[in-house]
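Reopening this ticket.

The earlier resolution said the output was attached, but the attachment link was broken on my side. Pasting everything inline this time so it's all in one place.
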Amino acid sequence: MQKQRCGWCVGDSLYEAYHDHEWGVPVHDEQLLFEFLVLETFQAGLSWITILRKRDNFRIAFDNFDYRIVARYDERKKSALLQNAGIIRNKLKVNSAITNAQNFIKIQEEFGSFDSYIWSFVNNKPVQNKWKHHKDSPAKTEISDKMSKDLKKRGFKFVGSTIMYAFMQATGMVNDHTIDCFRYSQV
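Inline output:
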């Protein structure tokens, strides 16, 4: 018998594996939070499957998403990234990854960790939704609006409310698995 999954991932083995093992699982690891932040910003205007297919290339290109290294990227590294056909070669997004790494560190210094800061928007507990169909899930919420506004105020780029809601879904800050999905009760 086939597992019941959220409709958005069905039919693509990479999507299904991501859905089954990562999507909606609460993330508290600093480096993984930064990875999702970078990937979500690069996803802006594109499909998530495009990013997933290039994820390993992004890991290599961005030094395994070590924000301490990314924060120090220079013009030569930026140029190399813009020549890398394995990732999304968008100058604004490459620059945003560097800027966001620098601001990520500032948040760590202010709050003790990025995890403490970002999870405070949901009172350190995942929001449990009860969607019957994956299309019922909103593109953004009041929480993602507030998060986006605060991140922008702190100098982050490509962190609009829709991007931040996708980040919340990916990192388990919100459980948007449909109620009939086998992962709903697991996360």
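Reporter confirms the inline version is readable. The two ends are 22 Å apart (CA to CA). The chain is about 55% helix and 0% strand.
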